[in-house]
């Protein structure tokens, strides 16, 4: 407790070794909820001195001004994310901008940014549409057989994996038709709550030493091996060593745009870099969107009036676009967009963002008359996303699902207030693509079906042990054909 006390900075007293994180360590609370409790217990402070696991002093940022300072204005002091990933054990993940540090982060991010422009997302729509048809066929077949209850996290993981396989590398993920497809099996190894989740989350966020002891890998070796294999094959089909092959028609996918970018700047199309970027598209591309879709359906099921208003918007717009889901059509559905933002507010995929201080920083006094504090390099700053999203001073009735609150806000007015995609120079580059695939899938289903909470449903509970926000027991939703005539 003495560290912050000695520096005259207020915060909760810690317990030996576990600091302020004992409830997280015991699996009782998600780390995001622990940070939320600390945030709520110090309503008038701009930041709080806390102790993470192993008594590591860290700063939990509270005020909107401080959040903007850390994530935007003084970003060059807080450039790196706190994630302990071993380059040796996780060579593919080390390329991921979310994980990469320093100059490597800058280069990796700069290279993938051009493939997430609105034009590129528009160009992905043929892929997205073809997977929407598979989703529709899959659901319709099951409903015809009176199997109308679906575990939505699983359903949407199939959908987003197939979109990623197709829009990413021009492959058929076959997730709907083959339960043993490579892509489907992959999900079993990633992100789902299991007996190891807590240890893995501790290794990832708190302790490289523990990571070394348990040989933690963000992407398990079999996933890395499999991914390298398929990307090598696709690359081989598109180029001879050093040059591009003449293909009958040029593919329009993420991998091809990367190849084109490298060709243009006369850089080599080397396998490790290409596999690294394709790994980023896969790992970031499916999980966050499938969770968003599942949580959104859960909220629509609980709020029939929201669902009805959304279905009316979908029906109106689709009628104007001859039933076709296009990039342009989804731009005309503001209510759909608002429901997704509101879902991300209640269920942000990352309940807290953790930033390393990479360059000494002068933290202003915590309260009038106090002293400033020079933050040493390496200290962790916690941006408590969930706490901000549930703060009654910032959002009226924060526990209620009210999409209207996102209807009339311009993106800029959300600065620091909505953190579902992060903020500042590290903000999610795949946001447009993630939202586009989520919207297309939801339109496909809600234009045909109404949803309600399934009778099979187990009590809704968020896992306390996973790194990303995940439902502990899945989300069971019933589909009923709409009478649209
Ligand atoms: C609804 C879907 C998505 C959500 C909610 C989401 C959310 C986030 C969040 C919270 C971050 C951390 C931002 C920060 O540190 O400030 C992030 C980073 C990132 N996301 Fe997303 N994401 C989504 C979809 C995607 C997709 C589809 C892709 C790519 C295919 C993607 C690629 C990335 C990458 C590469 C980063 C790291 C950026 C960096 O550190 O420079 N995301 N995302």
TrEMBL record:
Pfam families: p450 (PF00067). Keywords: Endoplasmic reticulum, Heme, Iron, Membrane, Metal-binding, Microsome, Monooxygenase, Oxidoreductase, Signal. It is found in: Endoplasmic reticulum membrane; Microsome membrane. The keyword DNA repair does not apply. Heme binds at residue 428. InterPro entries: Cyt_P450, Cyt_P450_CS, Cyt_P450_E_grp-I, Cyt_P450_sf, Insect_CytP450_Detox. GO terms for cellular component: endoplasmic reticulum membrane. PROSITE patterns: CYTOCHROME_P450. It is a peripheral membrane protein. Its main location: endoplasmic reticulum. The keyword Heme applies. One of its GO terms (molecular function) is heme binding. Transmembrane segments: none annotated. Its cofactor is heme. SUPFAM superfamilies: Cytochrome P450. Belongs to the cytochrome P450 family. This is Putative cytochrome P450 308a1. The gene is CP308.
């Amino acid at each position: 407790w003495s560290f912050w006390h000695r520096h005259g900075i207020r915060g909760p007293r810690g317990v030996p070794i576990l600091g302020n994180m004992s409830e997280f360590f015991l699996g009782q609370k998600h780390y995001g909820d622990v940070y939320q409790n600390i945030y709520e217990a110090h309503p008038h402070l701009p930041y709080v001195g806390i102790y993470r696991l192993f008594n590591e002093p860290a700063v939990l940022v509270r005020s909107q001004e401080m959040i903007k300072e850390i994530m935007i204005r003084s970003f060059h002091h807080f450039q790196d994310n706190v994630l302990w990933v071993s380059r040796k054990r996780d060579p593919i993940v080390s390329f991921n901008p979310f994980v990469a540090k320093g100059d490597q982060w800058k280069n990796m991010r700069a290279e993938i940014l051009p493939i997430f422009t609105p034009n590129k997302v528009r160009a992905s729509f043929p892929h997205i549409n073809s997977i929407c048809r598979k989703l529709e066929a899959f659901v319709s077949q099951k409903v015809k057989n009176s199997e109308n209850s679906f575990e939505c996290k699983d359903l949407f993981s199939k959908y987003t994996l197939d979109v990623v396989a197709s829009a990413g590398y021009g492959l058929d993920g076959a997730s709907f038709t083959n339960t043993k497809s490579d892509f489907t099996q992959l999900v079993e190894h990633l992100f789902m709550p299991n007996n190891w989740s807590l240890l893995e989350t501790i290794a990832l966020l708190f302790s490289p030493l523990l990571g070394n002891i348990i040989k933690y890998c963000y992407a398990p070796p079999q996933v890395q091996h499999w991914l390298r294999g398929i990307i090598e094959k696709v690359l081989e089909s598109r180029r001879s060593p050093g040059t591009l092959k003449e293909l009958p028609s040029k593919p329009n996918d993420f991998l091809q745009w990367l190849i084109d970018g490298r060709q243009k700047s006369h850089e080599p199309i080397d396998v490790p870099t290409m596999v690294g970027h394709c790994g980023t598209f896969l790992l970031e591309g499916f999980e966050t969107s499938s969770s968003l879709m599942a949580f959104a359906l859960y909220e629509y099921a609980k709020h029939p009036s929201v669902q009805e208003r959304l279905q009316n918007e979908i029906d109106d717009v689709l009628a104007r676009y001859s039933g076709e889901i296009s990039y342009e059509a989804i731009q005309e559905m503001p209510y759909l967009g608002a429901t997704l933002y509101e879902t991300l507010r209640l269920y942000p995929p990352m309940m807290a963002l953790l930033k390393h201080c990479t360059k000494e920083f002068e933290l202003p006094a915590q309260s009038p008359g106090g002293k400033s504090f020079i933050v040493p390099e390496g200290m962790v700053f916690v941006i408590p996303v969930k706490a901000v999203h549930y703060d009654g001073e910032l959002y009226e009735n924060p526990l209620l699902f009210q999409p209207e609150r996102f209807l009339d806000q311009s993106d800029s007015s959300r600065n620091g207030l909505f953190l579902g995609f992060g903020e500042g120079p590290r903000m999610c580059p795949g946001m447009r693509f993630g939202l586009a695939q989520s919207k297309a899938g939801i339109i496909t289903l809600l234009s045909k079906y109404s949803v309600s909470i399934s009778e099979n449903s187990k009590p809704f509970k968020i896992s306390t042990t996973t790194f990303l926000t995940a439902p502990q027991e899945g989300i069971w939703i019933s589909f009923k054909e709409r009478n649209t005539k």
